[in-house]
Amino acid sequence: xxxxxxxxxxxxxxxxxxxxxxxxxxxxxxxxxxxxxxxxxxxxxxxxxxxxxxxxxxxxxxxxxxxxxxxxxxxxxxxxxxxxxxxxxxxxxxxxxxxxxxxxxxxxxxxxxxxxxxxxxxxxxxxxxxxxxxxxxxxxxxxxxxxxxxxxxxxxxxxxxxxxxxxxxxxxxxxxxxxxxxxxxxxxxxxxxxxxxxxxxxxxxxxxxxxxxxxxxxxxxxxxxxxxxxxxxxxxxxxxxxxxxxxxxxxxxxxxxxxxxxxxxxxxxxxxxxxxxxxxxxxxxxxxxxxxxxxxxxxxxxxxxxxxxxxxxxxxxxxxxxxxxxxxxxxxxxxxxxxxxxxxxxxxxxxxxxxxxxxxxxxxxxxxxxxxxxxxxxxxxxxxxxxxxxxxxxxxxxxxxxxxxxxxxxxxxxxxxxxxxxxxxxxxxxxxxxxxxxxxxxxxxxxxxxxxxxxxxxxxxxxxxxxxxxxxxxxxxxxxxxx
Length: 483
Ligand code: ADP
Ligand code: GLC
What we know:
Radius of gyration: 23 Å
Bound molecules: adenosine-5'-diphosphate, alpha-D-glucopyranose
Oligomer: single chain
Strand order of the largest sheet: 3-4-5-2-1-8-9-13-14
CATH architecture of the largest domain: 3-Layer(aba) Sandwich
Shape: globular
CATH class of the largest domain: Alpha Beta
Largest sheet: 9 strands, mixed
Distance between the termini: 12 Å
Helix content: 25-40%
Structural class: alpha/beta
CATH superfamily of the largest domain: Glycogen Phosphorylase B
Mean pLDDT: 97
Number of helices: 18
CATH topology of the largest domain: Rossmann fold
Low-confidence stretches: none
């Protein structure tokens, strides 16, 4: 079976969050199960500047974008694993960020990603790749089924491929003014109520939803939630109409990157059999964030958090709750970047509790690993969470998650008060400060019983969220489309 996997970010080349982790691991798992798969992503500045060697394939694509015809260079990674093609066009992708600066989105995002998606289709045709399935992800690739159907010039192509479209986050839909529609060169009939039109604008994610053959999202719970007005972000009606082709497949964990027994980024290795290295990691993480790991630190648990600092991640709740959290005897280590008001808030917290609140603003993968390893508890109070990966990483690092019961957090974390023998975290249902604080307080009480705590850590570290399981579910869907 031949698959083209189109995605706008892949770890380690360029990443803003979990999407890139999926781009890194799912194609590898699919290849491991015998599929012939290639990936395609844009060649951002970060890719141009990273340490990995990339080669120019010499292939050139001619891509119409409205009235202009632009040339794309096709580069390729030399790393092992599924072939990765990079679409190079410096005018669009040689920029500091992937999609937006802190204060605003790049104002040519529609044009940039129309170009990228057309280049994916042009590449498939030029290579005569003859894919059985094109697997597209999130709004940046939502128009791919249109370009497969209508061709990059909009005059017809005749699609033979089936399209699987995965929604990683419905909150980002790729909405653009109708005046930009001509960049797509698609027939105007595609800009209808049934297709790309959304309150007078173009909605790229809606396109993926209506035109894909199969639709997936990244947890079973989120697959149900997005059919409701609370989580559907205005697309609940469109999704309800598409519910027969909608499936929830939980993401997995790339244990070759996220396992404390083999993780080279952390201060000392440890495992469920021998947890002693976690103490070293704990001290190192506290000190890495500029705090002093005094002799009393064993008593005070370390709460870790690694997150985009945006509304989705529960920052409003934390802004109200932080005084109460820090009134307890705890350390808080936070790594994140995002909305300016939340970044400032984090800096204020660091000033307010200089000995116990450590913050690093920015994107830093090594530090993400060090916090996972060094923390005792991991904070994820997300308002909504399609899947969430850090709670799954936390389990493997023996770092007990505190989560809001939503999406993939609800699917993967079982509250310890409901079942002490199978529970793996602390979960609160109501999105409120008192509910969050009850979970925090329960966690702090549990932490005091060192023997039970160690037993809990050892148990959760053995849970398995492998990509092989997810890959098998995707393959089942691919096969269902080809019979
Ligand atoms: P989302 O994709 O919504 O941001 P996920 O939980 O799926 O959330 O994935 C987040 C991923 O991004 C994890 O691998 C996490 O470690 C990483 N991450 C988030 N923020 C940062 C940061 N500031 N520095 C390094 N890694 C980060
Ligand atoms: C999105 C979601 C996150 C999910 C990730 C990968 O960024 O916010 O919950 O884990 O995609 O699917």
